UniProtKB/TrEMBL annotation:
PANTHER family: SHORT CHAIN DEHYDROGENASE (PTHR45458:SF1), SHORT-CHAIN DEHYDROGENASE/REDUCTASE SDR (PTHR45458)
Gene3D superfamilies: NAD(P)-binding Rossmann-like Domain (3.40.50.720)
Example GO molecular function: oxidoreductase activity, acting on the CH-OH group of donors, NAD or NADP as acceptor
Organism phylogeny: Eukaryota, Fungi, Fungi incertae sedis, Blastocladiomycota, Blastocladiomycetes
UniProt-recorded name of the protein: C-factor
Endpoints of the signal sequence: none
Any Pfam family: adh_short
Organism, scientific name: Allomyces macrogynus (strain ATCC 38327) (Allomyces javanicus var. macrogynus)
Domain of life: Eukaryota
C-alpha cells in the first residue's frame, strides 16, 4: 500500500507498530528528517493507517505474534525498497498483572510480543540491512526501564518487566553476533499513549523527537547499549 513518494538516495527505516503511539510519532519524525518510512501495522484498513499513510512510503501488514507474518515481511518490504538502513522494533504490549493472580497465557503472550518477536524481526530483516550500501546500519529495540533489574524498586508488572528485561539481553547478544550492525535498546520514558491510558510525563511526538536524535546519531561504539531517550546509558 503506497502512500507518500519514495525519495531517491534517502535512508530507509522500517518501524513496527507504527499505526499509533510512539511508533506513529517516530514515523513522522523519520519522514520529517528525510527518511523513507516503511511502517508496519497489524491492521491495514484505511482508518487504522490514515495518519501513518501521510508519512510512509508504504504500510505493510505485520502481526509480530505471528511467525508466518514475520517470515513474509522481507518480501513485502522488498516490493517497496531494495534495502533497509534502520529497523525499529517498536511494537509492544503491556498486560496488567499481579502476584497471586498470574497466568501463563498472559506472561507468555507478553514474552512473545515484547521479546521473541523483535529478535525474529531482526533476524528476518538482517539481509535487507546488509544489502544497504550505507555503513551505518542500525537495529533499535524500543525497550523499557521497567526491564531494568537494577531499577526495580516497586515490583509488579511481572510479564512486562521480564519481557523487556529479556529484550535487553537479546539486544546484547545480537550486538555480539552481528558486528556490522549497531544494535541498541532504547527506553522512551513514561509517555502519553494508549499503553499508559494517556498518562505520562511527555507526549509521543516530543518523545519521538528525542528518540530520533539518539537513533540517527548512534555510532557503532554504542552497540549493545541500553539507552535512555536522551542518550544516557541506563543500568541493567
Ligand atoms: N508509553 C510508555 O510509557 C512506554 C514506556 C516504555 C516503553 N514503551 C514501549 O514503547 C513501545 C510503543 O508503545 P506505545 O506506548 O506507543 O504503546 P501503544 O500506543 O499501545 O502502541 C503499541 C503499538 O504496538 C502494536 N502492537 C501490539 N501488539 C502487536 C502485534 N502482535 N503485532 C503488531 N503490532 C502490535 C500496536 O498495534 P495495534 O494498534 O494493532 O494494537 C501499536 O501499534 C512499546 O514497545 C512499549 O513497550 C512505552
Amino acid at each position: 500500500m503506497a502512500a507518500v513518494n519514495l525519495r531517491s538516495n534517502a535512508l530507509n527505516v522500517l518501524i513496527t507498530g507504527a499505526n499509533r503511539g510512539i511508533g506513529l510519532s517516530l514515523a513522522k519524525q523519520f519522514h520529517n528528517n528525510g527518511y523513507n518510512v516503511i511502517g508496519t501495522s497489524r491492521k491495514t484498513d484505511a482508518a487504522t493507517i490514515a495518519d501513518l499513510s501521510a508519512v510512509a512510503v508504504a504500510v505493510v501488514p505485520l502481526d509480530v505474534a505471528d511467525e508466518a507474518s514475520i517470515s513474509a515481511l522481507p518480501d513485502r518490504v522488498r516490493a517497496y525498497v531494495p534495502h533497509l538502513d534502520v529497523v525499529v522494533n517498536n511494537a509492544g504490549m503491556y498486560l496488567q498483572d499481579k502476584f497471586g493472580e498470574l497466568n501463563a497465557t498472559d506472561l507468555l503472550t507478553q514474552f512473545r510480543v515484547n521479546s521473541v518477536a523483535p529478535l525474529l524481526v531482526a533476524q528476518a530483516l538482517l539481509p535487507s540491512l546488509r544489502a544497504s550500501p550505507n555503513a551505518a546500519k542500525k537495529i533499535v529495540h524500543i525497550t523499557s526501564r521497567m526491564g531494568s533489574i537494577a531499577d526495580n524498586t516497586s515490583g509488579g508488572s511481572y510479564g512486562y518487566r521480564a519481557s523487556k528485561c529479556a529484550l535487553n539481553m537479546l539486544n546484547a547478544s545480537l550486538a555480539q553476533d552481528v558486528k556490522d550492525v549497531t544494535c541498541i535498546a532504547l527506553h522512551p520514558g513514561y509517555i502519553q499513549t494508549r499503553m499508559t491510558s494517556g498518562s505520562g510525563d511527555m507526549d509521543a511526538d516530543e518523545c519521538a523527537r528525542r528518540l530520533f536524535k539518539v537513533i540517527h546519531g548512534a555510532t557503532h561504539a554504542q552497540t549493545g547499549q541500553f539507552l535512555h531517550r536522551d542518550g544516557q546509558v541506563l543500568p541493567w
